C-alpha cells in the first residue's frame, strides 16, 4: 500500500501541476503574459514535433514550415470559406499535413541517396513549391486571409486565455507523444536509423515504415499547431507563413536543447523564445536575433549534442568499467556435433550484377541445419556479396534463396532478419550513440522472437557475458577496442536467436589468443543450435571450424566438401592457397 | 502566348540574371563539394561586401572597381578566418550549416544597425546603360557580371582539373586521410579554398551593390534558388554551378513571361526536386 502511494504520488503531483498550468489564464494575468506563454508553448510544440523525425531518426528537415503552413491554411480556408466551426477544423489541420508527409516520404524514403543535407534541401524546396501554389490559387490568391469573422469559442474568460489553453493542450500532448515514442519500439528503431540505417534494416527494423510514421506524426503536430496559430494571428499571408523562420528556429531550438532527447527541444524552445522576447522592439529585436545566433554557435561548438544530454552526462558521471580488463574466455565445447539432414538454406543460381560487373554468377549452395560452412575464395570472388544477398542487403539479379523451404529472396532485409537470419560486419558497425547493452537490446528487440522488455534485457546481458563483454554494458562503442567491437557484433547477432548466422571475417585483425577465443565462441554458438556460414581468410580457423568448405571463385562455386579434401584439391590450391599450404 | 520578341527578351534577361545565381552558387559549391562545409553565411558576406561598396561609392566617391580591389581580398581573409573556426572544432556538414546560419544572422544584425533596415540604392552611370542588339536590350552591368562569372567559373574549373593544387583538393574531398598519406597538405589547401569562396562572395557583392536594391533582409531572398543551383550544377563544380544558374534564371524568366511572375519559384524548385529524385547521369 505504502509502495503504491509512493509510486502514485509523483504522478498525482504532476497531474495537479498540469491542471494548474492549464487553468493559469483564470488567474487574471495581463493578456501580455498569456500571449507570451502561448508563444512559448507554440515553439515547444513545433520544435518537439520536428525532433520526432529529424532529431530521433536524423533526417534533418528544413520543410517544417510546409506542414505548419498547410495546417494553418486548412483551418483558415475551412473556417472562412466553408464556415466550419474553428475547433472542428483542427482535426483536418492535423490530418492533411500528415497525409502530405506520407506522400512525400513514400517517394523520398525509397531513395538511399536522399539522406543528410540533400533531404534537408529537398524539404526546403517542397516548402517553396507549396507556398507558391497556395499563393497563386484561390486558397490564398495573394491577398491573405482575414480570420476576424471566425468566432472563437470561449473556453477561457479571455481570448488570449483560450489560445493559451489550446496551445497548452497541444503542447502537453506533443510532449507526451515524444516521451512515448522515445521509450517505445518505434523510438528505438528511429534511434538505430539515426546511427546507421543499413545496419538497422539488417537487424530487423522496418526502416521505411518507421520513417513514414515519424514523418506523419511530426507533420500532423506541426499542422494542428498551425491551425490554432491561424486564429491567433488573425490575418495570414503566404509570406508570413512559409518563411524561413519556422524551420530555422525549430532546428536551432532542438539542436540547442538536444534533438535526440524527448524534452531537449522543449528546453531549447523555452530558452530561445524567452531570449527573443526580452529584446522586444525594432533594433532590439535584431540584436536579440544576433544574440541567439551567438549562443547557438557557442552551443554547437562546445555542446554538440545539446544542453539536455550534456547535463545528463554530467549528472551521470560514473567510473567506466576499466577495472574489469580482459575478455572472459568462452566455454569449451566439443566440435563433434553432427550436422542434421534437414536443409536450412537453399541458394539456387544466385546471380548479382553491379552495372557491368558480375559479382555472383549463379551460385548453388545448400546448408544443412546445425552445420558450419566456411566460405573461402580470393578477394573479389563474391563471398561478402553472397552474405549481402542472403541477408537481403542487396536484391538478387537472378536466382532464388530459400530459408526453411520458404522463399526469402524478394523480402526486404528487415523481414529476412525477423525470419532468423543474423549477420555480422567485417568492420564492426555498432550504433554509435547507444551503449553496448543498448546495441544488443535493439538487435534482440527487432530481430528476435517477441519477448517482454525485461526478458530481452536479461537475455542481452546473458549474451554479453557469453561473448566476454561483462562490465562493458554501459560503455559507448567508441570506448571499445576492435576485439570488443567484433564480439559486440557477435552478441548483437546472437541476441536475435538466429537460425542462420552469417559471419563476415570475424577473425581479421585479432591476435592469436583472441582468435583461439573466437573459435571457441563460434563452436559454442553452434552448440546453441544455430547454423553458421562464415567468410574467413584464416585457413587454420576454416579447417578447425568448418564441417564443409565452399570455395568461391569469380562469382561461381568452385568446390564444396569436407575441409581437408577441398584443401587438397589441386584446382583450389592453384586459384587460392598457393604451394606452401599444399605441401 | 507572348510574342517571340518578348520571349527572347525574357530568355536574355533570365540568362543574365542567372549569372548572379551562378556567381553566388560557385563559392557555396566549392566549399560544400570540396570541404564538406555548407556555408549559409556566404549570402551575408556578399551583402556585407555590397554594403561596403555602396558606402565607399556614395560617401567617399570611390569607383566600384577600386572598392572591389579592397573588398575582395578582405573577404578572402574573412573566409580563411572562418575556416580556422571550422578546423579548430572539426565541424561537420550539419553543424557548419547551423553555425554559418548564425554567422549570417549576426552579420544581418550588424548591417541593420549600421545601415538601418531602409532600402539603399547605389546609382551609377552604368545602371541604366544597355546595348541594343536587334529587337533586344542587353543591360551592360548584367552582361559584365556574366562575363566575370564565366571567366571565374572557367578558370576555377581549369585550376581544379589541370593543376596539382586543384587535383590535390579533389583528392582530399574524396578521402582526406588517403590524400594526406600521399603528401597532400589538406589543411593549407582548405584555407586557400575557403578564402577563394569568400572572395567570390566579395565579387558577387560588388555586382549586387551595382545591380540590386540593398536591404538587410534581402540576404535571405536568394537562399533557396542558389541552393537549388548548387545541387543541379553538382557539388564542387564551378562551371556546372554557372550553367545551372543560367538554366534556372532562363526558365524562371520564361515562366514569368508565359504565366505570371508569381509562379517563378515553382520552376526552380520543381527542377531541383526532379533532379534530386531522378539523379540523371548527364549532370
Structural description of this entry:
The complex is a heterodimer of chains A (583) and B (283). Chain A is an alpha/beta fold and 583 residues long. Chain A has 24 helices and twelve strands. Chain A has two domains: 34-243, no CATH class; 343-582, 3-Layer(aba) Sandwich (Rossmann fold). Chain A has a six-stranded mixed β-sheet, sandwiched between helices. Chain A has a four-stranded antiparallel β-sheet with strand order 4-3-6-7, with helices on one face. Chain A starts with a helix and ends with a helix. Mean pLDDT of chain A is 85; it is low at 319-329. Helices cover 75% and strands 3% of the residues of chain B. Chain B has helices at residues 4-35, 41-59, 64-88, 93-115, 140-162, 164-174, 176-181, 186-211, 223-232, 238-258, 264-278; strands spanning 130-133, 136-139. Chain B starts with a helix and ends in a 5-residue tail after the last helix. Chain B has one domain (4-278): ABC transporter involved in vitamin B12 uptake, BtuC, CATH 1.10.3470. Chain A binds chain B through residues 60, 107-108, 111, 113-114, 116-118, 120-122, 124-126, 128-129, 131-133, 135-136, 142, 244, 248, 251-252, 255, 283, 286-287, 289-290, 292-294, 296-297, 300-301, 304, and chain B through 38, 85, 89, 91, 93-95, 97-99, 101-106, 108-110, 112-113, 220, 223-224, 227-228, 231, 260, 262-266, 269-270, 272-273, 276-277, 279.
